[in-house]
């Protein structure tokens, strides 16, 4: 099979030295970027219906920068002043430092793990009896909330933003030899925009277990799965796959 065009279902990276550039240069293949999903904040009115009081929780866990944005957006929308005693726990350093966008870092209790959920849980064990808030999207991975509950944390999920399909009908979707997906929502978007879509000879690449499951559930064929024992990035997996086809 000749591979000439790849569609990456994400916005184009702002870094000119991004990993997908290697595909263009090394494999001489066209790589297009198109966002398949959009993030929309849950409205204040909609959130009020959940009856979750943000001020009743003294520990907040952040798994993404988007979660931080919408947590503070909601607090502002509800006219709430988050107390200086609030403790923030993040899954990695980058997310932790992003909190500086909203608070003075040195005055807050902010901690982070090295990206490991298990390490984060160990760090949180001294707050096992406290009320813990986990801001999430309407569609989210169950790994962290499930592990917290198994470890008997008093955790509440707060849906503060939601994933919706972007309008990608303008795409000539059949022109692509490989399409990459990074979340189950990407598959949903494909089917909503192209309800009669047939995969044919197009190869599908998936990042993450849940994305792989969504592809198979939609009765499509999965050809590239990342991460794997050999590849941790989508770009490196694509390059390896392309070279094997030649």
If you consult CATH, what is the topology of the largest domain? Rossmann fold
- Overall number of structural domains: 2
Spatial separation of the terminal alpha carbons: 8 Å
CATH architecture of the largest domain: 3-Layer(aba) Sandwich
CATH classification, class level of the largest domain: Alpha Beta
Q: Helical stretch count?
A: 9
Give the ordered list of helices and strands: EHEEHEHEHEHEHEEHEHEH
Question: Level of helix content?
Answer: 25-40%
How is the largest sheet built, in terms of strand order? 3-8-7-4-5-6
Strand residue percentage: 15-25%
Q: Mind summarizing the main beta sheet?
A: 6 strands, mixed
Question: How would you describe this protein?
Answer:
The chain is α/β, with parallel strands linked by helices and 246 residues long. The chain has 2 domains: 5-36 and 166-245, Rossmann fold, CATH 3.40.50.10090; 40-163, Rossmann fold, CATH 3.40.50.10090. The protein is built from 9 helices and 11 strands. The strands form 2 sheets. Strands 3-8-7-4-5-6 form a 6-stranded mixed sheet. Strands 2-1-9-10-11 form a 5-stranded parallel sheet, sandwiched between helices. The mean pLDDT is 92.
In short:
The protein is α/β, with parallel strands linked by helices and 246 residues long. Helix content is 32%, strand content 23%. The protein has two domains: 5-36 and 166-245, Rossmann fold, CATH 3.40.50.10090; 40-163, Rossmann fold (3-Layer(aba) Sandwich).
